[in-house]
Amino acid sequence: MKLQDRHVLVTGADSGIGQAIATLFAQEGADVAIVYHTDQQGAQETVRRVEAAGRRACAIQGDVGNPQSVAAFFAEATQALGTLDVLVNNAGVGAGGASVAELDDAQIETVLRTDLLGPLYCCRIFVKQRREAGGGGRIVNISSVAQHLPTPESAPYGMAKAGVGSLTRSLSREVAEDRINVNNIAPGLIQTPMTQQRLDDPDKREKSMSVIPWHRPGQPEEIARLALFLASDYGDYVTGQTWTIDGGLSMQWGGA
Questions:
Q1: Are 139 and 171 in contact (CB under 8 A)?
Q2: Angle, CA of 108, 112 and 118, to the nearest 5°
Q3: How confident is the model at residue 70 (pLDDT cuts 50, 70, 90)?
Q4: H-run or E-run covering 242
Q5: Please, which residues have CB within 8 angstroms of residue 14's CB and are 6 or more apart in sequence?
Q6: 176 Cα distance to chain centroid
């Protein structure tokens, strides 16, 4: 059991990558706070999976882009499980189909608040809690391969994910003396509800697979296994890093 009796908070754990992480962490001995925005049914399914592994779970509705909501769901998670040991910043929204010149303020605000400020707000509270507990702890951010690649007609998304990579590097230096590890995972095309429509379209799927050397989408469980390494003692000497897991997509890009 790599996470025996650890207390973990996972944002966006109602589906996809977040649900896979919560499930695997529970199977490895962790109790899990499942933060969701609107998909209560999905969150309850994650609760079921965690409890099926014999661990405690709580589902908490919250908005990572609202600092008051973040403070509230951290307080609720701590009350339910105890002091948190691991934070996984997974919640995010996609954005596409609009050039920079055509973006409206609401689109920009939603993406940057959720995908960039959300992780920052969560890290801020988590670090304070861990310092009060005497240090130690793990932060695993989930960004995207978009942080490395151009994102035409999705500029705010690429900006936000690049910012998460920068946050990871900066924060890792700030909290190194506290022995809080901070790392980031940048997934490529992963088969989740967010990408399913794209994968179900034969033309879009073929186009996507043609630039991925592995010629398949990744699975949420593959991201979860990497997150487990970074959240466990196995990853103790790793901090401030972004781990790209994309079937070779970013290596292919320069020659495509």
A1: yes
A2: 150
A3: very high
A4: strand 242-245
A5: 34, 36, 37, 39, 40, 41, 42, 43, 45, 46, 59
A6: 21
- The pLDDT value given to residue 256: 47
Please state, as a whole number, how many other Cβ atoms lie within 10 Å of the Cβ of residue 234.
11
Answer whether residue 254 shows pLDDT above 70. Answer: no
CA dihedral 107, 109, 112, 115 (to 10 degrees): -70
Assess whether 157 carries a catalytic annotation.
Answer: yes
Helix, strand, coil shares, percent, the chain, to 5: 50, 15, 35
Q: Between 8 and 196, whose confidence is greater?
A: 8
Structure tokens at 166: 């920068």
Paired with 138 in beta bridges are 86, 181
For 189-218, write each residue's pLDDT tens digit: 999 888 788 788 888 888 888 888 999 999
Distance CA(192)–CA(190), nearest Å, equals: 6
Residue 17 has pLDDT above 80, yes or no: yes
Tokens of 118: 């959300």
Q: What tens digit of pLDDT does each residue of 85-121 get?
A: 999 999 999 877 899 999 999 999 999 999 999 999 9
- Distances in whole angstroms, Cα of residue 166 to Cα of each of 19, 126, 160, 169: 25, 18, 10, 5
- Residue of 121, 157, 234, 237 with catalytic role: 157
Q: Which domains does the chain have, with CATH numbers?
A: 7-192+219-248 (3.40.50.720)
Amino acid making up residue 50: V
> How distant, in Å, are the alpha carbons of 162, 182, 195, 222 from that of 112?
11, 21, 19, 26
